[in-house]
Amino acid sequence: MTFESLGLSADLVAVVAEEGYTEPTPVQAAAIPHVLAGRDVLAAAQTGTGKTAAFVLPILDRLRSHANTSFSPARHPVRVLILVPTRELAMQVDESVRTYGRTVPLRPTVVFGGVPIEPQTKALRAGVEILVATPGRLLDHVGQKTVNLGQVEILVLDEADRMLDMGFLPDIRRILELLPPRRQNLMFSATFSDDIRRLSGSILRDPATVEVAARNTAAESVRQLVYPVDRDRKEALLAHLVSKYDWRQVLVFTRTKIGASRLATYLDRRGLEAVAIHSDRTQPERTRALEGFKSGEIRVLVATDVAARGLDIEDLPHVVNFELPWEPQDYIHRIGRTGRAGATGDAVSLVSIDEADLLRGVQRLLKKAIPWTVEEGFVPDRNAEPVPLRGPSAGRPVRTHHYAHRSTGRTRSGSGSRS
Ligand code: AMP
Prior knowledge:
This protein is of the alpha/beta class. It has 2 domains: about 5-210, P-loop containing nucleotide triphosphate hydrolases (Rossmann fold, 3-Layer(aba) Sandwich); about 220-410, P-loop containing nucleotide triphosphate hydrolases (Rossmann fold, 3-Layer(aba) Sandwich), CATH 3.40.50.300. It is about 35% helix and about 15% strand. It is built from 15 helices and 13 strands. It has helices at about 10-20, 25-35, 50-65, 85-100, 120-125, 135-145, 160-165, 170-175, 195-205, 235-245, 255-270, 285-295, 305-310, 330-335, 355-365, and strands at about 40-45, 80-85, 110, 130-135, 155, 185-190, 210, 220-230, 250-255, 275, 300-305, 320, 345-350. The strands form 2 sheets. Strands 3-4-2-5-6-1-7 form a 7-stranded parallel β-sheet, with helices on both faces. A 6-stranded parallel β-sheet has the order 8-13-12-9-11-10, with helices on both faces. β10 (about 275), α12 (about 285-295) and β11 (about 300-305) form a beta-alpha-beta unit. α2 (about 25-35) runs parallel beside α3 and α6 packs across α8 (about 170-175). It is globular and about 70 Å long. It starts with 9 loop residues before the first helix and ends in a 53-residue tail after the last helix. About 45% of the residues are buried. Residues about 385-419 have low confidence and may be disordered. Adenosine monophosphate binds near residues 25, 28, 49, 53 and 312.
């Protein structure tokens, strides 16, 4: 399978070759021909699957006939609107549009909240064909009449499930009313929940459905492991594991912003460079944290689900659930950060007794039990162990740990032989 055989034009094929892509990813192979043919598409694809190129490349191809070098803003109406849930994703998608579109004279721009609006207003006034936006800030611009969406030909909803999770549905509906009824619609979502199906049913027309990963399953390349531990020993256990196994580039999930900040401070004080990234942080702070993490200066990034969504961090070796998420689905989103593109990754969950139900929920969704091990020195209080994982769903204890270089982790046998 080649990019050429998908029907992309020669200069875009050349661009992806320059990017070092040798063949299309599954979502690209499945979606690109439909998008080129002008069909609506509903695609299930997580970050890391190459989904951005799956819509950006064919969109560029379809739009190139409109490319012009006129200075008149009127000759550059918004033809493509790409809605995304977070600022990070907005920046990444914008970057992809610029990268893949470097030979196509179409003007892209990106608007998102948390930064001054004036530079965005100026860019919009000059005329742009491809607009990447978070819903709230886009509506601010609509309110100021700096953008007209009346000529949009293609609408993309990227990470639609997360947009719903973040409560953007009313904003999306308001934006939809501003678009011409005749247009191409592309919807990307990590999962196909009932809400997503309802939304797609109301937006998409006879969509081609692209599902590259099985529904609700985690990537096989992710090794999952649970550490039962007392709640008040979680910080210490995490610091211990990071040091002992010399983990680098660890993304740790907490449920709350306060929890994220506290944990980052704790780790940092122990010499493990850590930063919390969450929505209270200013945009420059978030960008700096992400860059530090990517460059290796920052070893541990602590994030809430909302903040972590859309972070494009490739080949992330370690994801830690400091707390299990309230929604089992979020567990899949979280561990989707690792084990991408053929690489293997570890997803470790620190689980205290009060989270036994959440763990069960996750295992139900995965349709399998997650192996578990107890770290020496962190044996949970006997009376406060997680409720044993009984029956057919019993977690299989691991004797030889997943990590090749690990030897001392004391393992437990299954629930039947608990003493
Ligand atoms: P995405 O899922 O869009 O966030 O993409 C994840 C990463 O995969 C990005 O860094 C892309 O540069 C990269 N990528 C996209 N398409 C391909 C491809 N066909 N081959 C190799 N890498 C790719």
